[in-house]
């Protein structure tokens, strides 16, 4: 199982953010983020929540509930399939759409379906 620090480090890489960027978003020092990543300290309470929000993750995932992340991936994949079918019916394709564009499309799809997104 991945540590909180490893999960933070991987997500920073995915988002192309530095430890300083995260520190600024969470309102802690860069050294504090470094300690979380190396495992010499663990974020707790409100700081953990702020890190999760800043990285677009859940606190459950950071704390080790791997199934939460898997559930989210399954939901997104299902929605991708649904949206892809709608696009295909209109003669369009999602092949050349980047992740930011897909996120916008997903938000619009959720709004159109009347599903509330947190």
List the helices and strands and how they pair.
Elements: H1 4-15, H2 19-26, H3 30-38, H4 45-55, H5 59-62, H6 66-89, H7 99-113
Helix pairs in contact: 1-3, 2-3
Describe this structure in words.
Pfam families: HTH_3. GO terms for molecular function: DNA binding. This is DNA-binding phage protein. With 118 residues, this protein is an all-alpha fold. The chain folds into 2 domains: 60 residues, lambda repressor-like DNA-binding domains (434 Repressor (Amino-terminal Domain)), CATH 1.10.260; 47 residues, no CATH class. Helix 1 crosses helix 3. The longest helix has 24 residues. 14% of the residues are buried. The mean pLDDT is 83.
Helix content: over 70%
* End-to-end Cα distance: 27 Å
Kindly identify the CATH topology of the largest domain: 434 Repressor (Amino-terminal Domain)
- Which segments are poorly predicted (pLDDT under 50) over 5 or more consecutive residues? none
The whole-angstrom Rg is 17 Å
Question: SSE order, as H and E?
Answer: HHHHHHH
Share of β-strand residues = under 5%
Q: For this structure, what is the CATH homologous superfamily of the largest domain?
A: lambda repressor-like DNA-binding domains
Output the CATH class name of the largest domain. Answer: Mainly Alpha
Main beta sheet strand tally, sense and closure: none
Mean pLDDT: 83
User: Count of DSSP E strands?
Assistant: 0
CATH architecture call of the largest domain: Orthogonal Bundle
Q: What is the global morphology?
A: elongated
In DSSP terms (H or I, runs of 4 or more residues), the helix count works out at 7
Task: Kindly name the structural category.
Answer: mainly alpha
Q: Oligomeric form of this entry? A: single chain
Number of domains: 2
């Amino acid at each position: 199982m991945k540590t909180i620090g490893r999960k933070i480090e991987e997500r920073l890489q995915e988002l192309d953010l530095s430890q300083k960027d995260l520190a600024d978003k969470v309102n802690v020092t860069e050294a504090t983020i470094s300690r979380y990543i190396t495992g010499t300290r663990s974020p707790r309470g409100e700081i953990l929540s702020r890190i999760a929000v800043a990285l677009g993750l859940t606190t459950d995932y950071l704390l080790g509930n791997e199934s939460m992340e898997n559930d989210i991936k399954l939901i997104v994949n299902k929605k991708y399939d649904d949206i892809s079918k709608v696009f295909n019916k209109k003669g369009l394709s999602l092949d050349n759409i980047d992740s930011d564009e897909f996120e916008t499309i997903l938000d619009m799809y959720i709004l159109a379906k009347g599903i509330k997104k947190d």
